[in-house]
């Protein structure tokens, strides 16, 4: 429907008939970025239709007879499921996500099941069957290894790697694997996070801390390779990556907890992460930075305006400081997201104002470094507007754009310039 929340699955034949509705689903916001319903699947025997749904509180696969009927859960679990694919003989493989770690499960035609690939820490996905249904190709990634192609024998369960993203194995000795930790926010909500620490620490040595916030906000951090984080810890920073309220992967209730409240309840999760870092003996509790891209950039702006005493440096990358600007937004995807998460802008202007940090910029005490790309889409006004607001209040800030980009900085040459710029900025105020 027009809200992108309610969906119908309609079956049409090649003869061009009007078709019939096989199933309906409600309240699954299909935003593309961070949350996708995906396409339905028809079983090889043509008798069942599979689709993803939030109706049990998690993104699980449901099935319904092809001629219509009552949907039923395929494999119920408190995990988000994705990437389902049928083998030629009718077995079903799919991916499940538990706290950023994923696994591949097979449901056999005889109704038995088996977890075929289950890394201790890592992300596996995009399974693809061999024509004889005896092997499964998939992608595998971990915090210390970029994505590679693997092949697993469905009968023996043995996997072997087919590609190697690192040309030299020696690079792995320089990479740090994070610890998965959790902490309680102000309202006792449990927040999961990744903790990266410099590998070499002298006794009594203390490092500045950094909170890295993901975009979305309907998204999450996974067990993936984070080249930027590896860079930051090599430069002497302890990095915490929290999956704050509003993140996917922890159930629909958790995902909706920041609705109508961007930059406030979820900011409390960030601040609780700062308190966690301060409790580590090797972290300098007086030196904290916040950084992130897209919604992570928005959160960096919110942090300095709504919690001005928490951070000593902030680096918003491609953030937005005034949600009321989206009244004239041209891109439908952004309008739909704001309508779903904050309400209709004409009816809920108070919410948009409440969530916009730019109106509290007079509170800022933190040095701010605003970065973004410049390209064919003129989104630079968002960061520039925030910079001008800081300037009017005589706040400490720097502002830099990187050419030949979209709003986000994504090309290798510019990233090779931007990350040293960020570290240089943090060093000036945290070291």
Provide a descriptive summary of the structure in words.
The model has no long low-confidence stretch (mean pLDDT 94). This protein has an eight-stranded mixed sheet with strand order 15-16-18-17-19-20-21-22, with helices on both faces. A four-stranded antiparallel sheet has the order 3-4-5-6, with no helix packed on it. Strands 7-8-9-10 form a four-stranded antiparallel sheet, with no helix packed on it. It has helices at residues 227-234, 252-255, 265-278, 295-306, 332-342, 349-354, 380-392, 412-430; strands at 7-11, 20-25, 41-42, 48-53, 60-65, 72-73, 80-86, 92-98, 101-107, 113-117, 123-129, 135-142, 145-153, 159-161, 179-184, 190-196, 207-213, 238-243, 283-293, 313-317, 368-373, 397-402. α4 links the parallel β19 and β20 (313-317). It contains eight helices and 22 strands.
Properties at a glance:
431 residues, alpha+beta, 8-stranded mixed sheet, 4-stranded antiparallel sheet, 22 strands, globular
Radius of gyration computed on alpha carbons: 23 Å
- Beta percentage is 25-35%
Q: How many E strands?
A: 22
Helix content: 10-25%
Q: What spatial form do the alpha-carbon principal axes imply? A: globular
Category by helix and strand content? alpha+beta
Strand order of the largest sheet: 15-16-18-17-19-20-21-22
Q: What integer is the average pLDDT? A: 94
Ends apart, CA distance between termini: 52 Å
Number of helices: 8
Largest sheet: 8 strands, mixed
Order of helices and strands: EEEEEEEEEEEEEEEEEHEHHEHEHHEHEH
Uncertain runs are none
